[in-house]
Fold this sequence. Notes:
Chain A is α/β, with parallel strands linked by helices.
Amino acid sequence: MIDLTLAHTTLTLLPEKAIYLPDWQTLLVADLHLGKSETFQHYGIPIANRVNQDTLDRLSQLCQRFRPQRLVILGDLFHSRLALVDEVLEPWAAFLHGTDADVTLLVGNHDRPFAHHLPQIPNQQITETLALGTLFLSHDPQPQANHLNLCGHVHPCLKLTTRLDSLRLPCFYVDRPQNLILLPSFGSFTGGYEVSLKLGTVAYAIAEGTLIPFEGKPSRRLSR
Amino acid sequence: MSCPRLEPILDWFQRQGWQPLPFQRQTWDAYLAGQSGMIQVPTGSGKTYAAVMGAIAQLLESPGVGLQLLYLTPLRALARDIEQAIRRPIEEMGWPLTVESRTGDTSSSRKARQLKAMPDILITTPESLSVMLSYKDSAKRFSALKAVILDEWHELLHSKRGTQTELCLSHLRRLRPDLQTWAVSATLGNPQEAAQAAVGLGCQPVIIQSDLKRRTVIRSILPESVDSFPWAGHLGLRMFQELVDALDIETSTLIFTNTRSQSERWYQALQFAVPEYGDRIALHHGSIHVKEREAIEAGVKSGDIKWVVCTSSLDLGVDFQPVERVVQIGSAKNLARLLQRAGRSAHIPEGTSEILFLPTNALELLEISAFRRGLALGDIEARHPLACPYDVLIQHLVTLACGDGFVPEAVLADVRQTVAYADLTDGGFQWMLNFIENGGQCLSAYPRYRKVSREDGVYRVTEGAIARMHRMGIGTISSNQTVRIVYTNRKDIGTVEENFVSRLKKGDVFFFAGRQLEFWMMKDMVVYVRNTTKKSTVTPVWYGGNLAISDTLSHHLRQEVANALMDSHQNEELTCIRPILSVQQRLSRLPAADELLIETCQTREGQHLYVFPFEGRWVHEGLGFLWGYRFARQQHATFTISVNDYGFEILAPRDYPFKTLFSEDFLSLEALYDDVKASLNLSELTQRRFRDIAQVAGLVFKGYPSSRKTSGQLQVSSSLIFEVFSKYEPENLLLRQAEREVMAQQLEVHRLTATLDRLSHLTLRWQDTKRPSPFAFPLLVERLNSRMSNESLLERIERLKQQWEKKTPS
């Protein structure tokens, strides 16, 4: 894990694809995409349901480890309307039941169409964005003048290529000029979008339980 | 001799002033005797009429109602020409037969009408046939079918399209047990197997060969002096003046290159060399927009366009009567391909085809000589049907389930009558059924999954949405994610691969479709560009351009090397390359037929090991990694391995004792499979293979043609599916298929085995050279090299990071 101090706040980046805010006793994860496998199944593409449980198990482990007062899901908790079936909703309800944290769900582009149909569960709040001191949490990037924006949506990935080898790794993407941090997608069945490193950006790539920083340099011309 | 049933046909031939050729008569007689088989004749020798006239004679004798003759062609562009050729006698003789085509170009209203009322004769592609089987009532639709013609069977046979064709035919034979099948093929090394795949097992195919002798003459375009000739490289563009000198703008000429990038570059070179011929020279390759390609093809036919720089996009297809000359730039890699291209000129029976061969580096002169000797001996490569690709059968099963539904026992019996699935196990078939019905083992407990459902023992697709999605995905031609290139006024130019575009920024200039284009912006998978005169040298690179020389050609190539300096063996190419071979002889050695040449050389880069089995790049890749692994097992090191068609290089740190560590065990077949698996990053190769498999098996939905983006909810990369399957269902047969394809098709393990066996009988010749020899030099500059070591993922990342930091200016 790597501690960053930005906007006078300590942010603990976790190779488990989450951020813990010790000052706020708050755990942040983005883009769980629960029920994505069910959506695919509906269209005849067989993806195992166990990806949901895997996602929730990892989230439970993090909650047990940090015992946060608050858990914020930065959007896209559910993948689509087709995800709202018992086999998906029940394990989610069981997770909420088993955690002491207050859960805040920010609405993402995937869950917006059915945000009002989400089952009402006591310790779950639903909102568009959330401000925590100098931090501004949202689903999609919404850079703020005076707040550090923490967001999901992008599913950032870093592609490392040399003449001889190439790798694609999920990452945290810290963009200082824009004053924002992109969280990697947390869900076990989610893809990634390749981000490019520019001056003032750092990508913390995730591999085998560690975080490896890659710092952006002045951009290069297309070489060939 | 005179058969009354053939009278109408003979009548028409007589009116044309034609005499049926012996092989045509033979085919008609065999057809009318109820037989199936394969015609193996050169292109342009009257094969279409040989194939269809027997069937037409039968239709005239005993007319039926509905579709009776199905003609399958690999290219929809060919369908038009075939339709015209078949229409001609029908219209001239007033025969009561209807002919139509059905391809991707056919309007949907016509397609819908055809489904209700089929013509007597239908010309279509394998994909369109599959789609027809995916509609209800196909049993009724094909109930009058008498015969199927498979055109250009050699093009389909060894690919998944061939497998798909075999499967469709197995189904048609269930509907029509007396169905006759006739394949038409160019010359192949394994006609018996090819014919069997066409007619299905349980039928004895007749093979008809013409005694037409098509002479093929190879002439090379030689450099003034070999001194100025590059020892290596793929372009050899400096030869453009020699090329222009050898050509004549009044002579209709096809100029074949091996890759799309090369065709772009040669087109530019020609435009630069003879700007005054500008609009009489055209560029044709598979990524250029179809409208423009059609315009070029029409231009060649009309004579307005004289020279076309092209790729395999023109290997077959449109009958180019006016083409008089064919040029091959760089090695054609196999004899069959060279013959096919040579055959694009002189489209008359008994004609002589001439091919001008332009070498792009010095060693290709040896290949030209090898080509000529191989052709003189009548050698040609074999093409084998694929063995049991699960993805194609999964697609086929869902296709049938969308249509009339299927009964598993019947389908299993049918598919086992194909060559591709003759050895399909009960277990494998059960797995596939379970996969489409329940989504595989890991899904069986869940109710949401529904692709195919079973009712009274019949498997059907009941949801319209799933059937529609499936029809969109029918076919086995996979492609990388491509983006359209469009002028800012929205005129289409063609497509390029997304990863090329992702490196471009606004204002960057690149060459495409023979144009100099400036990148303007990209939006919704469309790249907007403008013409520019700004300079640039960037040309898109398309995936999958590399071919290896075939086993047949590599055999001849080794003979050339062994005999190159013998006076009795000379020809103009060998004379031309002689100075270079003399340098090779002086610096190192020219290996005799019973020798394996191994060179070692120390440079600033480290210790090089060069090995020259002359077996083609894929075998060398396998062998290079295998030896690298076997070396590293004795003394750990990180190697860089480079390969080309002649040999491979292992680059090690300085003073690595290759020769001391080497032993006979390096040629051992023992634990070959395991060693190869251990030496390569197999999961990465497998994942790349899985991309195509996932598409064919219907796991990746590419979207409806009308919508620009795939629907967001179903957007997924095959690598993500690969990951999920590997994790939750490692026994999935599609994963195993991917691994098998890597072994068999990419690494050609069967050839690797044969090579090791061959090498073990050779005398090894170790030569320590002061500087790289002419044989080694191309490997030294080869760019397609790869690393091997036993580093962990984190070590790999750390090294990537170091290199990444080095190349980025800080």
